[in-house]
Amino acid sequence: MKKIMKYELVINEALRSALNYHTPDEQINEFIRFFGRHISSDRIYIFEDCKERHVTNNTYEWCAQGVVPEIDRLQNVDMDIIKWWYDTFSKGESIIIADIEDIKEEHRMSYDMLKAQNVRNVVVCPLRYKDEISGFFGVDNPPKGDYRGLTIFLDMIGTLLISLLKLRNSFIKSNKEARLSSYTSLSKIYTSMHLVDVQTKKYHIVKMTDQIVECLGKDFKKMGEYEIRDDFCGHINDMVEKMCIESQRQESLEFVDISTLEKRLLGKNNISHEFIDKKSGWCRSRFIPVDYEENGMLLHVLFCIECIEEEKKRENWLIYLAKKDLMTGLCNR
After folding, report:
1. What is the pLDDT of residue 163?
2. Of the candidates 173, 202, 230, which is a domain's last residue?
3. DSSP state of 190
4. Which of the listed residues 147, 173, 199 is the one where a domain comes to its end?
């Protein structure tokens, strides 16, 4: 009982410290930093599962001074590598490895992965939401001692972490919806608008007219207003193939190539390309950068298409007026 009361006091202090920060990411990082220092471990981390792709990702990590961070390397980890962890979690148990040499023969892949991170011992607890495992929370190289007591402590922390992660998700969703809503008013001049994550190739459709949806055909699925879709490259290539006249198709495909976009946008506030749509006539596609990482890496862009058929007609009429004499129809000098 005294030990549980001590744990609760530590958790309360950690929450107070975390609430000094404004964003959910900052709060979660402070929360695990507090426990890392309290436990005197080498590393504390959170992994969140992506069941659609059957991978788990290291989303938060705190490291003691002198310990090499692993968060960048531990992305898209195949869940089968640590399948026995999930099997253990399903039984309502946590992972306790007092010495990784004990698992060398039975779980060689896990052993090699932990050994490469200079892990000697580790305690890991599942993150559960609505009776489903959604990831795990672990401590590398905690002081040798009462590992069972540590799992009780981590289970208590895990419950709070789930709450913080859900608050983060709500925060991200509300910000994203507000941003997409602001783009909706901008999209009025366009026939279609997409918000694209340049790094992951995920995208939102901010606007798409019925004419374009009809052009894409029955294979194109209408989804929720703020639904995230995968594979912008495949989607936009399909749009080009179905919308653009054959003689201009290759040039249009080169324009929508995401792999070269960052270089082409360097120092510019947008780039554009004109093409003839099979149904609407002349159109203009445009990439507009939205935001960059601190190191200058392009994160998001808006991809927009507008019909410029009337603009082209006016332009051609002005060219005609400049070149021809209205009375005789002969070319001017």
Report:
1. 87
2. 173
3. -
4. 173
